Structure formats: C-alpha cells, structure tokens
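Pilot study result, target chain (286 residues):
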Amino acid sequence: MATTIIIARSSSDKPERASLEQELAELCVARGLDVLLVPDLYHIAENSEIWEELARLRDRALVFSWMYPRPAECVLRRHRIGDNGLQTFDLASYEAAQEALEAPHLSLAASDGSQTPGGALKELQEPISPRWYPVVDRSRCTDCQHCLQFCIFGVYELDDAGRVVATNPDNCKPGCPACARVCPNSAIMFPLFTDDDAICGAPGKLVTLDAPARRMYYVRTGKRCPECGQEGEATPAGSQGGKVCPECGRQLPGRLEAPDEPRESNALDEIDALIDELDDIAGGGQ
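Predicted structure:
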C-alpha cells in the first residue's frame, strides 16, 4: 500500500521547528514519498476543508506533529482520517530531520517498492486561530457521561447512539482541564496542558483520580461501585455518619463506626472545593 507523509506545522514561531519540518519534507520527497504539509492539527477549525481533503486519502498515513501520538491520532480519527492505516509521531522527540526519517515505519515506507522515484510535495494552507478543547480517546471512553454532567460549558452532548461526543468543543474555557481530571478512564486529553503529562496525553501516562474526584463520579452518575457493590444515589462521605466505602463514599449498611474511630473526611466539602475551583476558571477573564 502506498504511503503519504503528513507533516503538521507548529503554530509557534520557533524557527528551529519550521526548519525541521521543511527539512523532513524534503528528505521524504527525495526518497520517493508523497508529503502533505498542513497547519497545526490541534488548531484546524472543525469545519475546515482540510479535514475533508485528508479524509479522502486512500494511502496509509504517517503523521508527524508537535503533539504526543495518542492525542494526535484521536484528533485525526475524530475527523475520519486513518481508515487505511495511521501512525503518528511526535516531532518534538527528534533532534534532527534525519533522525525522524530513520523511524522504523518511515524507513519501511521508503523501501517497500510502492513509491515512485521522487515524491510529490503539497501544502494545504489556511489561516488558523488558537483553540482549546478536549480530545477524547474513544478507545478508553465508556460513555459513563460523567464529563457531560460535570462540564458547565456545554461542550459534550449525546449522539443518537447514546455516545458522549464533544459536539461543541470550542465552548471549552481556555485553560480549563477539569473534565480530564475527573474522567474515570483517563479518556480526555488537553494537548496544550503542559502542567500534567497525563492530561496532555504523554505516552504511558494516565490520569489517576484522587478520592474526591472518584466520589464525585458516583455522586453524579449513581454508577455501581466495584468495591462495595452499591449503585444508585450516592450520599457524600460522612454526611450521615457511620462507616463509608472509601471508593464511592456510600454508607456501608450494618457497619457502625467505633466511638474512637475517626470519621471519614466529608467528601461533600472536597467536591464543593473542586466545583468552586471550576467556577473560578469559568469566571476568569470575564
């Protein structure tokens, strides 16, 4: 199968990035590979014709961008790109274009005999504006709807099949990664959130929910707890006294707290603190 190299240009003004992109494109063309230069994948508008053109590709696509591979692949698949094979690479992991050219998949593509001598170089251009929105990894999402219930900006909706979809991604508040912090399956990423490797989709990194975030999940969704087996309405921990499940915060029936045993911390206060933090983000800049 023929291979097309897609190189997504960085939205930054760093000259070393532009130089690496251009050199890699020229090296690929010299090896007989077709190359498409496109704007920064994360910032291409939802209704851009670039997505439509990329979706018409019938070749296997090897994509180089300045995002980690997992969020880059999810962005592409959201726009129905990659049905004929897709491999993503992080340009930031290479010090030079020649190093990127020697990546195993790219070396194989250059020597598989399917390319003609001297590839073609094409650039798809359009003005782009900075964006901030969640990238959902459908391979991890279980459609629990926690993000849908938690987000106050109207980013998420249910499609006709009952799947959670970020139908209004640009409603997201710039700088807010709250839904990624509370997703129980680490299915939500924000590639520009550099304060947390797990949230920006770094390889091998997944968000681990703390106790307040885990309890908030059960309070808001009523899902069955794998620890105590209870489901339905979840009472925040400590609100009724007695022994509570450390996972979901629900009251454990028939088990009373010993007089000298410290009571579980009140997760309701912790949840309120998280919501107050989200409200602060929502009000920022207004």
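One observation from the pilot: The beta strands are 3-8, 34-38, 60-65, 86-90, 121-123, 135-136, 157-158, 164-165, 188-189. A full batch analysis is planned for the follow-on phase.
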